[in-house]
């Protein structure tokens, strides 16, 4: 049987993992990437101009993909298409928000066109927007520019990447246990706890940063083989959009907002790879505890079902070792009393965990 050909549009992380999944499923991926960034077998500097259903789509399920490379157009037929073109491909430069900009004598540019700080040496710079791009740029430019201003129209909550004990923020906050707490405590209680924590690091009111909105916590799909029906997907999208608009301030970022663990579990259910914590609690309690307390990494969805990986259990149980390893360039012997306290605390937590899991699953 001839392999089904799949067009993968975009060679970023989504495109690359889509290629891997296609290969695992015995499909033939062809990746189109309009830049020449990645080496290897892919077709480079090829822009996908359009994707259309073929006239016989109803019986063949095939797509017509029009590409352009070095001014030459080409039409190819595929059995499937994966759109991995990214959320931030096009720069958003809302010049209409800055009346009079055309008379500005200085230079202005979008962060996407920024390459290095040289052109700003000794200059006064204003960065508009306090997203990750704004923050990164302010840090980089302040070393060489004369003065740097970081501007925000409605304030923001500043979340540091490094959380308690020097661990990465997402490692500590993306566990099933934390999401379970969020569900039982409610968003407003969790928000006030987080706001208190963030204010301990930097008093948002004092710095004039405190926004009107509270902290907005947001933090596989290429393994999905059968999509739900179009009407089901549209209904889901409408529901998600309504929930998002209630929870977050009006923003262009809505398309990428959602709860990480919830989204992963929902997709894992559809793919059939969600680990069953309750049955694991009896058959493999050590693994069950790690799945509940530890960071919810993609390897959690390689334990069973399509894409199952034999090394998954070991990789999950050693996640923390790999996080700690690069930090431990000088190993300090831990004191016995400390070790026994940690062991005791772990035992107590395990007991609590089993009590919780009986209600959670
Ligand atoms: C400035 C910046 C810094 C970031 N830093 C971090 C970070 O430190 N850590 C982190 O985890 N995330 C970071 N992110 C987020 C991360 O980069 C994205 O989540 C990730 O790149 C998304 O991957 P993707 O494959 O969906 O899209 P992309 O990486 O955007 O890839 C999409 C690809 O599709 C190609 N493409 C688009 N249209 C077409 C077309 N018509 N035809 C052919 N090819 C096309 C593009 O050229 C691009 O190569 C950062 C993002 C930005 C913008
Ligand atoms: N190091 C990193 O990890 C890194 C670095 C860069 C980018 N990224 C990622 O790339 C994505 C994009 O980040 P980003 O920082 O470029 O964009 P962003 O998060 O959308 O932030 C854009 C900022 O610009 C402001 N803004 C938008 N339109 C405006 C207007 N008309 N007038 C005034 N201010 C305006 C927004 O204000 P409001 O909040 O008021 O809307 C916001 O502060 C994110 O997913 C981010 O995580 C990551």
Description:
- The two termini are about 40 Å apart.
- The protein has about 350 residues and is of the alpha/beta class.
- About 40% of the residues lie in helices and about 10% in strands.
- Helix 1 links the parallel strand 1 and strand 2.
- It has helices at about 15-25, 55-60, 130-140, 170-175, 175-185, 185-200, 230-245, 260-270, 275-285, 285-295, 310-315, 320-325, 335-360; strands at about 5-10, 30, 45-55, 65-70, 70-80, 80-85, 125-130, 145-150.
- Among the domains are: about 5-85, FAD/NAD(P)-binding domain; about 100-150, FAD/NAD(P)-binding domain; about 275-330 and about 340-360, no CATH class.
- NADP nicotinamide-adenine-dinucleotide phosphate (NAP) binds next to helix 3.
- NADP nicotinamide-adenine-dinucleotide phosphate (NAP) binds near residues 94, 129 and 154.
How do you describe this structure in short?
The protein has 361 residues and is an alpha/beta fold.
N to C succession of SSEs: EHEEHEEEEHEHHHHHHHHHH
Strand content: 5-15%
Compute the number of helices.
13
Shape verdict: globular
Small molecules held by this entry = flavin-adenine dinucleotide, NADP nicotinamide-adenine-dinucleotide phosphate
Helical percentage? 25-40%
What is the third-level CATH name, the topology of the domain at 5-83? Answer: FAD/NAD(P)-binding domain
CATH architecture of the domain at 5-83: 3-Layer(bba) Sandwich
CATH class type of the domain at 5-83: Alpha Beta
Q: What would CATH call the homologous superfamily of the domain at 5-83?
A: FAD/NAD(P)-binding domain
Radius of gyration in whole Å, from Cα? 24 Å
Terminal Cα separation, in Å?
42 Å
pLDDT averaged residue by residue: 86
> Largest sheet, order of strands side by side?
2-1-6
Low-confidence stretches: none
What is the β-strand count? 8
Can you summarize the main beta sheet? 3 strands, parallel
Assign the structural class, choosing from mainly alpha, mainly beta, alpha/beta, alpha+beta, or little secondary structure.
alpha/beta
